Amino acid sequence: MKDFKGKVAVVTGAASGIGRALAFEFARRGCALVLADIEAAPLHAAEREIAGLGGAVVSRVADVSKRESVMALAEAAYEQFPSVHILCNNAGVATWGGLETARHEDWQWLMGVNLWGVIHGCEAFLPRMTAQAKQGRLGAGHVVNTASMAGLIASKGLGIYNTTKYAVVGLSETLQKDLRDYGIGVSVLCPMGVTTRIRESERNRPAELRRPRDADTATELIGQYIPAERAAALVMACIEANQLYVVTHPESEPALVRRFERIREAYAFLKGK
Q1: How far is CA 173 from the centre of its chain?
Q2: Domain range summary for the chain, segments of one domain joined by +
Q3: What strands lie across the sheet with 8-12, from one edge to the other?
Q4: Could you give the CA distance from residue 126 to residue 69 in angstroms, rounded to a whole number?
């Protein structure tokens, strides 16, 4: 996708962090916006700021872990605009701790937002995006799924988060193959540290899934933290280039190389058996 002007972009988790930065990047490039978040006040604040820039924008409070909520978001989007060209399944949450101490509620919460949120976005928007593509009415289209470097490299203390993000990476890799014939690109964002409020995810944990927490044991990521705006700018560049993987930190490369070397070692071991 080389020209964003006149396109319609949907962004979940748009009230803060990477989602908010993505929304402003799209707006500056001439996109109309459909913004969604579970937090109403900052969501509507983002809507007002983007509208102040002169862009067309609507917002809806949505819980991406609930299929009916994302379906309602899609209905609102298509009521307002004839097409959705860019879908950003960005909403995400995190928790920390060893898998041996994980509670079922932790699994439910992170799987619901980080994985089912992406699935629900695909279910809600892709049927109409692909139908319009087949009819020649979509033009260029793109899907962006926010994963993490934790979707490519496993880290102690991030087991549940790793599980959800590895799944999003695999989903995105397959989705790219499935959507290629429709002219719809796919990118999966795999950042390391970004200045967002993900460490404050507990503020949005549903009451029925809450549990007593120990002192903060959040895993520290290697490397520097970058502004959300930098991550969003890299996403835009990868959409333009139809690049599948969006990486944000050069210092993550050695860890990825080590992972794949260990996989290669398994083949060397196999040959010796």
Answers
A1: 14
A2: 8-271
A3: 57-61, 32-37, 8-12, 86-89, 141-146, 184-190, 245-247
A4: 16
> 160 near 105, Cβ under 8 Å?
no
| DSSP secondary structure, 204-225, as one string | G--GGG-----S--PPPPSS--
144-184 residue pLDDT tens? 999 999 999 999 999 999 999 999 999 999 999 999 999 99
Residue 103 CA to residue 214 CA, distance in Å, equals: 13
Average per-residue pLDDT in the chain?
A: 94
CATH code for the part of the protein at 8-271: 3.40.50.720
Residue 62's nearest CA partner among 84, 36, 90, 23 is 36
The token pair that represents 193 in the structure block: 């540290």
| pLDDT at residue 204, as a whole number | 85
Find the farthest-apart pair of alpha carbons in the chain and give their distance in angstroms, rounded: 66
Q: Return all residues near 114 (Cβ < 8 A) that are at least 6 apart.
A: 92, 93, 161, 164, 165, 168
pTM of the model: 0.94
Work out the end-to-end distance of the chain between its first and last CA atoms, rounded to an integer number of angstroms: 48
- Residue 258: what pLDDT? 96
Annotated catalytic residues are: 161
Structure tokens at 95: 């928790």
